[in-house]
Amino acid sequence: MAGRLPIKGVRDGLLVTLPEGEWEDVRAELLATIDDRGDFFRGARLVLQVEKRQLGAAELGSLRDALAEREATLWAVLSTSPSTRTAAADLGLQTELERPREPDADEGETEIEAEADWQPAVFLRRTLRSGQSIRHPGHVVVLGDVNPGAEIVAGGHVLVWGKVRGVVHAGAAGDETATVAALDLAPTQLRIAGQIAVSPKRRGSVRPEIALIRDGHLVAEPWQADGRR
């Protein structure tokens, strides 16, 4: 049951949408998900979307303490229930997220239309060396190499403008739409969501590749400059 909760990286942390059902069952599923992916959630700020569920200060406080024991922070609770919002506010939790700024009318239209994706990204302009680890709830972009012994764990996509020789885990919170792209993709281990692969012995010349889950399998394909695969 663990690991099925919808989790998405947002600017303020990790947004976790809780399903309907008995609170004790939902609470147990959330904690089991965090236990299964302890490295990813360690140090994370959690935003819980509970919709119309009514929760009191005792229930939220108990959950906050359980998350703290797992080195995660309950930062916000989003709900349409006035009583839940009041209980969250009494505990010092946020009850809404700041919306992205709308463009001004005089800024003009953009030339490229893109699908809205508000997951935050971190940009690294350096090579990751052995023993170095990057963990981020959103996307990770590296302008450099990922050496053997280095590690990237991202909730979203991973883009490396260089060589990948270390460990890369995209969609670490369970997002099977995440991808890993690099100019030279030959990692020690590659993971997307729950799928794991190791690089086979290379044949032929080096070429940019993108790894993704297709039909339930983790595959690597040529990475085209125009985004076509």
Explain the overall architecture.
The protein is of the alpha/beta class and 229 residues long. The chain has two domains: 7-90, Alpha-Beta Plaits (2-Layer Sandwich); 121-222, Pectate Lyase C-like. Helices cover 17% and strands 33% of the residues. A hairpin with a 2-residue loop joins strand 12 (189-192) and strand 13 (195-197). The longest helix is centred in the first third of the chain and has 14 residues, at 23-36.
Q: Given the helix and strand composition, which structural class is it?
A: alpha/beta
Helix content: 10-25%
Strand content: 25-35%
| Largest beta sheet: strand ordering | 5-7-9-11-14-15
Given the C-alpha coordinates, what overall shape results?
elongated
Number of strands: 15
Evaluate the radius of gyration.
20 Å
Uncertain regions spanning at least 5 consecutive residues: 107-116
What is the CATH domain class of the largest domain?
Answer: Mainly Beta
Distance between the termini: 33 Å
- State the CATH architecture of the largest domain: 3 Solenoid
